[in-house]
Predict the 3D structure of the following.
Amino acid sequence: MPPEAMPLLLALAWRSLRNRPLTTLLTIAAVALSLTLLLGVEQARRGMRESFTGTIRGTDLIVGARGGTTQLLLGSVFGIGSPTGRVPWDVYQRFTAHKAIRWTVPLVIGDSHRGFRVLGTTPSIFEHWRFRSTGRLDFAQGVAMTRDDEVVLGSEVAERLGYALGAKVIVGHGLNAVAGLGDHDAHPFRVVGILRRTFTPLDRALFVTLDGIEAMHGEAGHDDDGDAPHDDDGHGGSSHDEAGHTDGDAAAAAAAPPTMPGAQPPPAMPGASPPPVMPGASAPPAMPGAAPAPAFRFEEEPRALSAFLVGTKTRYETLLLQREINEFEGEPLTAVIPGVTLAELWQTLGTIEGGLRLVGAFTVVIGLLGMLVALYSSLEARRREMAVLRAVGARPATIVSLLVLESGLVTLVGCLVGLALVVGGFALAQGAIESRTGVHIPFRWPGAVEWSYVAATLSAGLLIGLLPAWRAYRSSLADGLSPRL
Amino acid sequence: MTASAASPAVACTDLRFAYAGGPVVLDIPSLVIDGGRTVFLHGPSGCGKTTLLGLLAGVLRASAGRVEILGTDLGTLSGARRDEFRATHIGYVFQQFNLIPYLSAFDNIALPCRLDAGRRARLAGTSLDTAVHDVARQLDIHDLLARRATELSVGQQQRVAAARALLAAPELVICDEPTSSLDADRREGFLRLLFESVRRVGATLLFVSHDPSLATLFDEQRSLPSLNRAARRDAA
């Protein structure tokens, strides 16, 4: 084919395709959707990894009760499930003083407010938590909570619930909050700070002090303690809220300590030695000022934590400390290095991802086969057209080029549409994904892997286009100017 | 008259052709057509007319013998060169379905010039646009240029095909039963326009038909069955 014929051939291929709009559009759709699936899996995979990896930086260890490492990580940092078990306060105190440790942040998890997670912690979390590379938890408005009736809101909480500074928040109603059931406002929180958006699960959290958790659990329960003996251990979500509140009744708690979720025995047992199954420990109401913890100005010392975050002095000490904690004899504990545990998680998910990728790849092949069928079956009707082209001087190679261009154009447009669907789709679905799953998938342009998929699809499309082209070549040679129709 | 008047437009010597693995369908000791003539070649259906035209156009390759067009021995040219030669020097009109369905009449007419630089060079300074409009005016399809091929009547399509064959004045115009799909009135009109245009550009017209009633309109008539020894053998 003479090179100057290229624009002409492109125009011919384009018009030929437009002449068969339905077939062409369906074929493009098949290619586009199949590529969307393949790219979407990759995009979601990478986005999720970036999101998860970016959520917790700067924390060297997460320590919780003995249990699954993944569960500990997901429950404490990502708000997916809950860490099981608890870390007694004295154990926490002990490690806080450890020489390898630079800082710690306690976490009490298990309460929620209208579907959002409530974290009992200390203002130190704002100082030490890092997300993505260097992101800090900055305040859009206000300041950190310091008193037991103060709360700081993640940006999405504030936005979705329409809370401003000074607003009163009743923690613990959970999802089943019903107007008129406002009887838990015995311990309302006042919004003192709202965080800037971080695009991490912290946007969906409320932060109260450890005292706040205590106070809430202590003062609630004047009302509906009738259903106190829940043994539900659903820590996340509303079920626990309800439990957390109803169990606040001191008498009930004392009566049934082992089965009571979150319930702690009365004051006489500061060591929190009983085997509580639930984090979200609560101290009985009548214990103001008992065992003050100077670091946090506790009025009521929490008996246990769900987990705590640790910053160590050096990377090396992280490893030693992890080992030390895991082998700690005083209490069965698990310490995880976030990055390592995430890597383990990805490895576990790798098989599934591989399967999804394979499905995606096969779908692309099927899409391209659809194109092959469409082109191939159109050839019979186009033999006359080929003869006309030959008569006006087209070489057989020109005919081949025309058909390869047609499949190339279909694949190219399919790829572009597929790319647009993936990029646009994720951009549009970001909010929905985040509100459904709590996972913020950051917007990202397709990376090298995605482009290589696109390139592979394009080449496969061109290769597949050679088949009908080859047949057209053969028949145009055989037909000459008189196709036997 | 152009230089093609001097050397014959078509000169076949001992031409034989058989489709792969098939019997010899053409065996023509000699066929000479002088330049600038309008020649009527007739023969019944299936006597090898289209095959002969394929050979003359260089789409098919002779099994034996020589095919010279405008002094060029097609047998010495590669396939690609023959395609180029055809694009540059030959206009071709089919019996029907001459047009690329997804192109406009204009684009159909312009196709040979867009495809081949040699043919473009024959425009001799005229722009392609002007040339297309000129030839369309001659064939009275000037108003139809913007229409898609599929929107044209059969008669209009044949005139568009003739315009394409004549664009940029090729030396040889080959028509393969171009009027068989037209009714008698239109046939007359089409031929009149075709003749006028062919004469204007000084081309040689080789017109093939099974309808002997048209023969008298041409400078010369040839009978393919009497030229073709293979056909005579079959008949015998």
In short: Residues 17 and 24 of chain A are 6 Å apart (CA to CA). Residues 173-184, 220-300 of chain A have pLDDT under 50 and may be disordered. The first strand of chain A starts at residue 61 and ends at 65. The interface with chain B takes residues 2, 4-5, 8, 12, 15-16, 18-19, 384-385, 387-398, 480-482 of chain A (CB under 8 Å).
